[in-house]
Amino acid sequence: MDPRYQPGPIDVQRDTGVTITYEDGYVAAFDLMALRLGCACAACRGLRERGQDVWPSPTSPLPLRIDDAEMHGAWGLRITWNDTHATGIFPFEALRKWHEDGCAFEFSRYASI
What we know:
Blueprint: E1 7-13, E2 17-22, E3 27-31, H1 32-37, H2 42-49, E4 66-72, E5 76-81, E6 89-91, H3 92-100, H4 108-111
Antiparallel strand pairs: 1-2, 2-3, 4-5, 5-6
């Protein structure tokens, strides 16, 4: 793996967001809303394609919170949200590229690398 995309410390703040320090020293911080709205799983992509909101749904607990986060192999982070959504995997390479672009585009654009 290219060292630019190799994660070092990952700080998960369940109420605020995720910060990843990559092996080359680059630091990428993501707030909860950006991550939840950016979920690249098939269900969330489908909702966005139909013009529907990914979050919140009428039954979503407020405020948004991370219940759990774990490594998915060596290449990504899997987040379980307090609305029980847990199918999105955030590849470290995609997260870095998304952050470098200022999170200006939909995350799924990067997640399909």
